[in-house]
Design brief:
Blueprint lengths: L1 E9 L3 H12 L4 E5 L5 H6 L1 H18 L15 H25 L3 E4 L1 E6 L2 E6 L2 E12 L3 E3 L12 E2 L1 H6 L6 E5 L3 H12 L3 E6 L10 H13 L3 E4 L1 E8 L4 E7 L2 E7 L1 E4 L3 E3 L18 E3 L10 E3 L4 E3 L9 H15 L13 E3 L4 E6 L2 H6 L4 E7 L4 H5 L6 E7 L5 E8 L2 H13 L4 H6 L9 H8 L4
Parallel strand pairs: 1-2, 1-6, 2-3, 6-18, 8-15, 9-10, 9-15, 10-11, 17-19
Antiparallel strand pairs: 4-5, 5-6, 7-16, 12-13, 13-14, 20-21, 21-24, 22-23, 23-24
Helix pairs in contact: 1-8, 3-4, 3-6
């Protein structure tokens, strides 16, 4: 059986299904191919299930602290199975919503694994046999999977990745996390809130090393206050099986140390899903399996594009591997194919970390500002002076806004506070639309809200 389409999308994560929906809206005959579940990693083994578990953990933490707010409550404990059931309910609800939208827009869905991608066609292995798909344009949105480092003992029972820790409830009291990036810190906060003893082992000199140093230092202080053990600048040498649990041996300044654990979580990054994807044709792939593309997301194969976690830009300007990055890129590719104006600015992508308190940032980094030789003015507001933070028992946090001194335009924003991931959208819009200091402070913000902190931070920028 052979079917021809204007656009074929391989991968039904946020990048893939958003691209398919946009293509259908623009009148393209579109097919969406997925080997696993609709929603991809984000919906099934990433963003959504993680945030569902985090929400349950934070509710548990709030109930434990209810006495401070005059609420007499007897807490019987945690039903981990029910927490995971709630997570699955959220995933299934959203999955049905995605399927409904795709069917409404008349997107054809093929469940199967794509292979032998070449210009104009590929093969899909389905449960009913092979299907050859031909298309004028092919968009690769196959995403990524957890990376496993070649550590001795990494294959032992009890050594897991984010996939396994999200799949089913695992009962443990002591967790060692190898990796202090976004994934590692989010799971550290989650299981610490559920009462587990947590240790983070990070090779870099600080956790969240890709973020601004002040955000990293602030989160380190917050986590240590909660009892999370953080060891940075260390190298994990091996993992050993003990009579009870596991032993993680690591090197710190030439000294061998160890941590015991019931479970070890590998959170050292992700690798691209490209295995078996291409026919024996010339496609440039990096040593981490990511597909090289130009600034138009074109691969070396004509009319074959790639987006999201699976890509590596040959100009070196690589965007963060995030669900909303992939979605925006996918929509941009489709709009370009259809001759439409691209609706999103792909140069300004917000980053979010769902810890407690939350972290969010957007705009130019310190290094980029220095490279551009821009003179700046910074406004910072400590959120312990914010009414909503105080009444809700929030932690010490801040909002920092960086403006160009000459034009007063907002260049960057960094937040570590409650609802930071909700508030960063306003600041992203401000940067994209080149809003000035005057424009940002002009609007009246309701009281009491966390959002008031944005105006206060801007007012503290003295030109």
């Amino acid at each position: 059986m052979e079917v021809h389409y204007k656009l074929a999308v391989i991968g039904a994560g946020p990048g893939g299904y958003e691209a398919a929906l946009r293509a259908a809206e623009l009148g393209c005959t579109t097919v969406l191919v997925e080997a696993g579940e609709l929603g991809g990693t984000c919906l099934n083994r990433g963003c959504i299930p993680t945030k569902s578990l985090l929400h349950s953990a934070l509710i548990y933490q709030e109930v434990r602290q209810a006495g401070e707010y005059g609420i007499d409550n007897t807490l019987r404990g945690i039903n981990l199975e029910r927490i995971y059931e709630k997570k699955e309910q959220a995933v299934e609800t959203l999955k049905k919503g995605i399927e409904s939208m795709l069917l409404k827009e008349k997107v054809t869905i093929i469940k199967g694994r794509a292979r032998d991608v070449r210009e104009g066609s590929f093969v899909v292995e389905t449960s009913e046999g092979e299907v050859t798909v031909t298309a004028e344009h092919i968009l690769l949105a196959t995403g990524s999977q957890p990376l496993k480092l070649p550590i001795e003992g990494a294959e032992l029972k009890g050594v897991i990745t984010s996939d396994e820790i999200l799949e089913a409830p695992l009962h443990f009291t002591k967790l060692v996390i190898i990796g202090g990036g976004v994934i590692g810190t989010e799971f550290a906060g989650l299981f610490n809130a559920l009462g587990c003893e947590v240790t983070i082992l990070e090779a870099a000199g600080r956790i969240l090393s890709l973020l601004d140093r002040e955000l990293s230092q602030g989160m380190t202080a917050s986590m240590k206050k909660k009892g999370i053990n953080i060891r940075t600048g260390v190298t994990v040498k091996k993992i050993e099986k003990q009579m009870k649990g596991l032993l993680v041996v690591y090197e710190d300044k030439s000294e061998l140390l160890s941590e015991t654990a019931d479970t070890v979580l590998l959170a050292v990054g992700r690798k691209a899903n490209t295995k078996g994807l291409f026919a024996p044709v010339e496609v440039e792939v990096t040593n981490k399996g990511r597909i090289c593309v130009n600034d138009k997301f074109e691969t070396l194969l004509p009319h074959v594009y790639a987006i999201g976690d699976v890509v590596w830009f040959n100009n070196g300007q690589n965007a963060p591997q995030l669900a909303h990055t992939a979605a925006a890129q996918g929509i941009a590719v489709v709009e370009a194919i259809c001759g439409q104006e691209i609706t999103s600015d792909l140069t300004v992508i917000p980053s979010c970390v769902y810890t407690d308190p939350e972290i969010a940032s957007v705009g130019m980094s310190k290094e980029e500002i220095e490279a551009a030789a821009l003179e700046t003015v910074t406004g910072k507001y400590l959120m312990l002076a914010n009414g909503k933070t105080v009444l809700s028992g929030g932690e010490r946090g801040f909002i920092k806004l960086i403006f160009e001194k000459k034009t007063k335009k907002l260049l960057a924003a960094q937040l570590m506070c409650e609802r930071a991931t909700d508030m960063i959208g306003e600041l992203t819009s401000a940067i994209v639309n080149e809003m000035t200091w005057e424009q940002l402070v002009k609007g009246v913000r309701p009281h009491p809200t966390f959002n008031e902190g944005i105006k206060e931070a801007a007012k503290n920028a003295h030109f």
